[in-house]
Automatic annotation (TrEMBL):
The keyword Acyltransferase does not apply. It comes from Cupriavidus necator (Alcaligenes eutrophus). Keywords: Dioxygenase, Iron, Metal-binding, Oxidoreductase. One of its GO terms (biological process) is catechol-containing compound metabolic process. Its cofactor is Fe(3+). Pfam families: Dioxygenase_C, Dioxygenase_N. GO terms for molecular function: catechol 1,2-dioxygenase activity; ferric iron binding. Belongs to the intradiol ring-cleavage dioxygenase family. It comes from the Bacteria. This is 6-chlorohydroxyquinol-1,2-dioxygenase. Residues 130-158 form the Intradiol ring-cleavage dioxygenases domain.
């Protein structure tokens, strides 16, 4: 169309995408175009601002690699990751709530033995035992479930960020027993700042926001015939629960790490000092009948 006006442009662009064969792709692209055009009109975006935005997104891509996903970090900080999670995770009321996976998940972590520690470095921090069950929504144990955990070291860094940590430090997965029970040994998680040495850090500084995530354990649960669960368990004593930089805290996922009196667990695992315990029963939704 020649001599196209501003008022006509959006409809013309939408029409060019009308023949997209995949109906879902067509729906997404046309909605994206409508909203982006409306945004540009709403803020009266200048060409200089448009170029700054292009260069910013380019820098997000350039700093990303197989160990750092700045685009996920940007999505997290804009609240988009949590919104997608909330929409995607509309499950039955009794199911454990999910939250963001985050940019530091690594597939292929090793299996750990019952009660084995995922802390693979010398450490003065007291052990934390995470125990509980994996149940379905009727309260029956989910046999065959696998529970995977990952977290930062006490310096606030994941193993893939820190050359001083061995591969798969503070990562691992466990099999539940026939009663759906599990026993994980780790250390108390710490609060930590997300990476601020890249474009997301520039955004936080420009908007006067802090970079902190409250202390948490990442948890992923999979089982045959069940919907997978990706979630966190947050430390109830953390001061950043109400201002998590990625908006991921849900009240049902907040727990206290309780001291454990000296006894059988200390003897079994050779613990000479204090240790902590977190008990949490996870409820996941079956997609096929148990049998």
């Amino acid at each position: 169309m020649q001599n196209m006006t501003e008022a006509q442009l959006t409809d013309v662009v939408l029409q060019r995408y009308q023949d997209t064969p995949d109906p879902r792709l067509r729906e997404i692209l046309q909605s994206l175009i409508r909203h982006l055009h409306a945004f540009v009109r709403d803020v009266k975006l200048s060409e200089d601002e448009w170029l700054r935005g292009i260069l910013y997104l380019t820098s997000v891509g350039q700093i990303s690699d197989d160990k750092r996903q700045e685009m996920i970090l940007l999505s997290d900080n804009l609240g988009i990751s949590m919104l997608v999670n909330m929409i995607s995770a509309r499950v039955a009321h009794a199911a454990t709530e999910s939250t963001v996976v985050g940019p530091f998940y690594v597939p292929g972590t090793p299996e750990r033995r019952w009660g084995e520690s995922i802390q693979q470095m010398p450490c003065d921090d007291p052990p934390l035992f995470v125990t509980g069950r994996v149940l379905d929504l009727d309260g029956a144990p989910v046999t065959g479930a696998q529970i995977e955990l990952w977290q930062t070291n006490s310096n606030g860094m994941y193993d893939i960020q820190d050359a001083e940590q061995p591969e798969h430090n503070l990562r691992g997965w466990y099999r539940v027993n026939d009663a759906g029970e599990f026993l994980v040994q780790t250390v108390r998680p710490v609060r930590y700042p997300i990476p601020t040495d890249g474009p997301v850090g520039e955004l936080l500084q420009a908007t006067n926001r802090h970079p902190w995530r409250p202390a948490h354990l990442h948890v992923k649960i999979t089982a045959p015939g069940c919907k997978p669960l990706v979630t966190h368990i947050f430390d109830a004593e953390d001061p950043y629960l109400d201002s998590d930089v990625v908006f991921a805290v849900k009240q049902s996922l907040v727990r206290r790490f309780e001291p454990v009196a000296a006894g059988e667990r200390h003897r079994e695992y050779g613990i000479g000092g204090p240790c902590l315990e977190l008990r949490y029963d996870f409820a996941i939704e079956r997609v096929t009948p148990a049998g």
